[in-house]
């Protein structure tokens, strides 16, 4: 399925998200999905301590016992969990959470350790220094951030450089055809800084599979049916006309190519410069089987543009003024090294 570089790591272009494993996806099925993903050439697993309060990491443990050296393991810290109790990114917590994740997964090093979200209660320097300590201690190979705004990520990168601390090599933001806000600032910054983007929610939590329609209630048991209004995949945010148009377009292209809507939506993401590996989150073995076909789908530039036409990113100042009034639509690519 092809690979790309993420700092010191070589990862496949589809990552397997394990958020539902040990929860809505029973253990046996989760292990069959891990086998199938591995057999298809995938090597990049994403989990977090908060998924099922450790159950996702515990579900991975027996599978990793047999396959540890064949996969890149990414996990996260920062959301509320019971072991170690609490939340946030205070240095002691980060160190204790790392040890807890290692213990739950039965491994001795985490390949990619990600901060799950910013922690306004902890000075950023303190967190970054603690993360650097984990790399120096050999407990972590590389660092990543998730759900960071561009300015905070840029600030973190500056601090890491100035202090000689281990850098963030990846950002895990929400990104899909139905959520393109990162194109305004986050994605251009990541391209400029050489930070690989590994999108979560690449199918809009299932919206980009065609399972939802304008006229009917979300299917019982589906992600949207169970989503509270505050969640990103809430119905009021997802089930809107422009998003349905994007699905219609993906369906038309899928029909032309003999592919599925989900495969086309993932192929679109794979064609965005700066995207290293969408993190797919299938709930079932059958869903995974469908998604694995995405890396075989290639879109032409015209198809890529057709798909993107319905859901442009929000127009925000100063970008709106720079492009509409001053004709600076394509800001020059920043280059940190200037060489
Ligand atoms: N960093 C973060 O804050 C963050 C947040 C969320 C997720 N993540 C990571 O990203 C991964 C993926 O996120 P996500 O679950 O939101 O991604 P997603 O791939 O956009 O959505 C997954 C959902 O799509 C549906 N689906 C998937 N394949 C399908 C298919 N072939 N046919 C029909 N429906 C299909 C399933 O919905 P149903 O359950 O309705 O069938 C599944 O639960 C997670 O596992 C986790 O590792 C990170």
Overview of this structure, please?
There is one protein chain. This protein has 339 residues and is α/β, with parallel strands linked by helices. 38% of the residues lie in helices and 14% in strands. The protein is built from 12 helices and 12 strands. Helix 1 (27-39) runs parallel beside helix 10, helix 5 (150-163) runs parallel beside helix 6 (186-193) and helix 8 packs antiparallel against helix 11. The radius of gyration is 20 Å and the shape is globular. The relative contact order is 0.12. Residues 334-339 have low confidence and may be disordered. Residues 17-19, 46, 116, 146-147, 172, 200-206, 209, 211, 222-223, 262, 279-283, 287, 290-291 line the site of NADP nicotinamide-adenine-dinucleotide phosphate. Residues 13-310 form the NADP-dependent oxidoreductase domain. Pfam families: Aldo_ket_red (PF00248). Keywords: Oxidoreductase.
From the structure above, extract its key features.
single chain; 339 residues; alpha/beta; TIM Barrel; 8-stranded parallel β-sheet; two-stranded antiparallel ribbon; 12 helices; 38% helix; globular; disordered C terminus; binds NADP nicotinamide-adenine-dinucleotide phosphate
């Amino acid at each position: 399925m092809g690979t790309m570089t993420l700092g010191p790591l070589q990862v496949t272009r589809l990552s397997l998200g394990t958020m539902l494993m040990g929860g809505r996806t029973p253990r046996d099925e989760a292990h069959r999905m891990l086998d199938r993903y591995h057999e298809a050439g995938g090597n990049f697993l994403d989990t977090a301590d908060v998924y099922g309060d450790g159950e996702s990491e515990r579900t991975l443990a027996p599978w990793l016992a047999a396959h540890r050296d064949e996969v890149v393991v990414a996990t996260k810290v920062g959301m509320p969990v019971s072991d170690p109790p609490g939340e946030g990114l205070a240095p002691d917590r980060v160190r204790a959470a790392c040890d807890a994740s290692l213990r739950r997964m039965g491994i001795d090093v985490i390949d990619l350790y990600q901060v799950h979200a910013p922690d306004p209660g902890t000075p950023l320097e303190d967190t970054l220094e603690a993360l650097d300590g984990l790399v120096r201690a050999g407990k972590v190979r590389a660092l990543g951030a998730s759900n960071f705004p561009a300015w905070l990520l840029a600030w973190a990168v500056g601090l890491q450089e100035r202090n000689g601390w281990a850098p963030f090599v990846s950002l895990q933001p929400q990104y899909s055809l139905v959520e393109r806000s990162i194109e305004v600032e986050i994605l251009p910054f990541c391209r400029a800084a050489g930070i690989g983007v590994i999108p979560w929610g690449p199918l809009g939590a299932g919206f980009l599979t065609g399972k939802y329609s304008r006229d009917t209630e979300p299917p019982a048991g589906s992600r949207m049916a169970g989503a509270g209004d505050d969640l990103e995949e809430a119905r009021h945010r997802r089930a809107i006309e422009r998003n349905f148009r994007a699905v219609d377009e993906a369906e038309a292209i899928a029909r032309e190519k003999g592919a599925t809507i989900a495969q086309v939506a993932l192929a679109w993401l794979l064609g965005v410069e700066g995207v290293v590996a969408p993190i797919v989150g299938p709930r079932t073995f059958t869903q995974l089987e469908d998604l694995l076909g995405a890396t075989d789908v290639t879109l032409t530039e015209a198809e890529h543009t057709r798909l993107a036409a319905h859901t442009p990113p929000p127009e925000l100042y100063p970008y709106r003024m720079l492009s509409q009034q001053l004709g600076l639509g394509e800001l020059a690519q920043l280059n940190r090294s200037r060489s």
